[in-house]
Amino acid sequence: MWQLGLAWALALLVTAGSSGPSAEPADPASIFADLSPAELRAVRAFLMERPELGLSPSRGGPLAKNSLFLVELLPPPKRSALRFLEHGGARPRREARAVIFFGAQAEPNVTELAVGPLPRPSSYRPLPFKGGRAVPFWARPMTRLEYELLHEALVTALAPLEPLLREATGFGFQNCSERCLTFSDIAPRGLGPGERRTWLVIQRFVEGFFLHPAGLEVLLDHRDPDPRRWAVVRLWYDGRYFGSVRELAESHARGALPLARLPEPPARQLFSSYEPRGRFSSGTPTDVHGAKVCEPQGRRYRLRGNRLEYGGWSLAFRLRSSAGLQLFDVRFDGERVAYELSVQEAIAFYGGHSPAAMQTKYMDAGWAMGASSYELARGVDCPETAAFLDAHHLLDADGPVRFPRALCVFELPTGVPLRRHFDSDFQGGFHFYAGLEGRALVLRTTSTVYNYDYIWDFLLYPNGVLEAKVHATGYIHATFYTPQGRRYGSRVHSHLLGNIHTHLVHYKVDLDVAGSGNSFETMDIRFENISNPWSAGARVVQPGGAGSPAPRLTPPLTCGRYHLAVTRRHENEPSSSSIYTQNNPWDPPVTFESFIRDNETIEDQDLVAWVTVGFLHVPHAEDIPNTATPGNAVGFFLRPFNFFSEDPSVASRAPVIVRPLDPPAFSRLHIQRWTPASPGPCVHPEPFSYNGTSRPV
């Protein structure tokens, strides 16, 4: 069987351009490939031409319109996919998932459709949620149009506060071309179903503006599809609440309001910037290149479309616009060990004294974290030797958008042997030394969800171990410092509070070990105290098995409260969260509790393991300018457990074996290697380059 090893960390890890993937008809992996730009355009054109849908362009116009929000691959049903992959059955029908905002009707709502067959769609059908749950219009994700209207409404509403803001910060909203204020929005957008009231944190628009709150937070009600009916309903300034803009402005005009005056930001070496400042005490050089990853004899992996092969490993992958990386048909030496392994959700719960901080409960699938996969920098985000792949998304746009170098694949020296042994003769010599270099293949992408950057990795090891890992970096979500706020975090700069928060990341692991019929077992170990069988009167204390393992499930709570939950697999339970949970956490269309409340047997069934990893982050001064990756990573391992007859990495030709030929003199050694003695140069010939843009295609 395969063992699922979990990693849960508090402050440390406890474990612990080319074109994008293309559909190659000759390769079975292509049934899981992301939609091509041509397919995305075909789906959009087909839906836009349907008169009964009455769709308008995404950009411009009113909010109360029917518009296409998202198009991405709808994976085939597992039964159809396995029939094709295992038994030579028909290729599954290729379909798209389309999300439509129906705002121009009597009862506005959000509807999902399956559109196909691709590449030439000719029909569509509804994609209902489990239990037929509907998605109300107010639960829809935010769009660029709504953000533009939100900014306009905020600028207009805060006009009476311009004198206050200019005096306190030196920045403003009105007629602004430089020295401007901006905002970050908080979610959930209210305290109960039906609300769309968002707290906005006002910030100075400088580099790293997330760390420059102005001391003002504004609650703006924008549920009505008509922006003319939007209104500011509450304000918070430097620890005090105000019922209206007028009340705050009049308090300032009377001189009754203590101002929180912010210092002038420097032109260079701003604390929130990456510009070097200071020197290390050792004096060792940092202005020269450090160690690099190289491939002296070329790549040892194969990348064909969306199929990745490395040693015994083979898998298909895609990058969902909604939730990110998804692996399919994961095999080792030709035998499937997992049908699907995918990121489901990333959650961050905050505490604080200000209303924005105490309201913040981010659920990043609602911010389309898969489509936040911006360009990876060669030599920084991935080694220079990496293979880079583009991604194409159709999200809140009127056509597909190309995200260059959104994914990368590279072989990584782990810096520690996969295994090794020095066999001493205990007389100053040895019988042999043997070791196998540590290597892993990494599939990586990132999600930059406003302030935070998540680095998503799947690592493949030659001994049949697969690791899923995520690093958190980027800017902390910070609020304006008040003395009362220190209960909820740390003062990380003069006017800045780093708010305490918990990161939770949820994965789906559809294991298929020697077929789809699996069981879930836990093994409990206890110590036994027994009589020593070879010494009368003596006792032996040793670990022993605690009896037959039994299936165990915890009470039905939300997915974020489980380290591990195991359920029967169902086609109508494809994900544990959705893009609507962020704006409707009170009654979301996908509720994880329903997955486990049915009390189904999990013996010899097609099972899914739902894995949650996470850590508590208490921000500190060293999180300035950004949270660093060391100590802020979590993940889990899939490990073979009596699945192979021996460590499968014995098939590698990379070990070194050293045997003495003339002990005890040890003057002659027999060194065995199966790789060339001289690997060749390790310098990448191309200079650093970066574009950073994503453009319609």
From TrEMBL:
Active-site residues, record numbering mapped to chain: 364 (proton acceptor), 452 (schiff-base intermediate with substrate)
Residues of the Copper amine oxidase N2-terminal domain: 39-123
PROSITE patterns: COPPER_AMINE_OXID_1, COPPER_AMINE_OXID_2
Gene Ontology molecular function: copper ion binding; diamine oxidase activity; primary methylamine oxidase activity; quinone binding
Keywords attached to this entry: Copper, Metal-binding, Oxidoreductase, Signal, TPQ
Domain (Copper amine oxidase N3-terminal): residue spans on this chain: 140-239
Signal peptide as annotated in the record: 1-19
InterPro entries: Cu_Am_Ox_Cu-bd, Cu_Am_ox_TPQ-bd, Cu_amine_oxidase, Cu_amine_oxidase_C, Cu_amine_oxidase_C_sf, Cu_amine_oxidase_N-reg, Cu_amine_oxidase_N2, Cu_amine_oxidase_N3
GO CC entries: plasma membrane
Entry PTM: Topaquinone (TPQ) is generated by copper-dependent autoxidation of a specific tyrosyl residue.
Nucleotide-binding listed as a keyword: no
GO BP field: amine metabolic process; response to antibiotic
Recorded superkingdom: Eukaryota
Enzyme Commission number, as recorded: 1.4.3.-
Regions annotated as coiled coil: none
Keyword Electron transport attached: no
Gene3D superfamilies noted in UniProt: 3.10.450.40, Copper amine oxidase, catalytic domain
Cofactor note: Contains 1 topaquinone per subunit.
Cofactor: Cu cation
Every Copper amine oxidase catalytic domain range: 292-529, 561-649
Family: Belongs to the copper/topaquinone oxidase family.
Annotated protein name in UniProt: Amine oxidase
The organism's taxonomic lineage, starting at the top: Eukaryota, Metazoa, Chordata, Craniata, Vertebrata
This protein's encoding gene: Aoc1
